[in-house]
Amino acid sequence: MRHAIDSLIVSTELDNYSPFMQSIMYKKITLLLFLILPAFSSAQTIIELKPGGSVRAKTIEDYKAEQKMKEREEADSLQYADNLLRAFNALHTDSLAEAERLFEESLRLRPHAPGNYIIRHNLALIDLARGQYIRAEKKLTELIQTVPNYYDARLTRAKTYLQLDRAREAIQDAETLLNTDELKYQSHDYLRQARFVRASARYRLRQYPDARADLRRILEEDPQNLNAAVLEALTLHQLGQTQEALNRLNLLLTRDPKSVDVLLARAELHTSLKQYALARADYDQLIELHPNDPTLRTDRARTLINLGEKSAARRDLDRAIELGLPRGSVQSLYNLTRTK
Asked: According to the model, what pLDDT value does residue 29 have?
């Protein structure tokens, strides 16, 4: 069931760029613009710090030098603000490279600006979107050490730990959030995300009853939560309630016949039950929805091999390689397609 679980976890990461998160981004812009404009001093005296220095009145040259410094700081602040606006717009259009460049340039312009923790979090999110989980975890850990109460970063790190197969650490971060009194009076969605991370980590650790308890809590608060519903179905299967699991997935598909997460979970459930024809039907639908996904081609090839359709399996494997999958990663499947 690993593929289906990874799909659910990734979908929670993609929420970082959902319309909800985009609205959060613009709130962040407002906060950053509030933080970046420096308050300039208007001192009228100079204190010389060299040996034998003294206090003296400012000269015209002092005022000129100070004015140049102010102008430079103001220019840097304006450029910093412009970079941030363009960076968040780039994220909105999935231009990750451009957003990364603008965020990093902003940090160079004003390395000590008070709002930089938001920029550093977004740089980690970009790494996460690219699948660079180790880089993301390093940035998030450094950020949390600097700003321990920045809960967005801790939630993102918990999700990153799941991608790195560090389930116990994911649970620790999730429980830190769930046990923070301050968050209990804020967004319920925020705590549901933390609870889902813990449920996913418990599933990874085969703590199925505990995972289901978390998922039931989520679904009681949010009955339409698709990720929780799919993971609960997979958990039921692991608890020996396979027919109930299939019933749950079938019901979800009556509501949304093109749900990738549900189709993928059902295909893998059929495969685990050796119901290969049914699994193939689900993979056919998935590939129709996402024809350029090499992993789906590989999954269907494996199913076709089990059905004895070796030529069709080879065609799927060939297509997966055309789509960028390394041949070495599927060579063992190619070997199974050879005719004796």
From this structure: 45
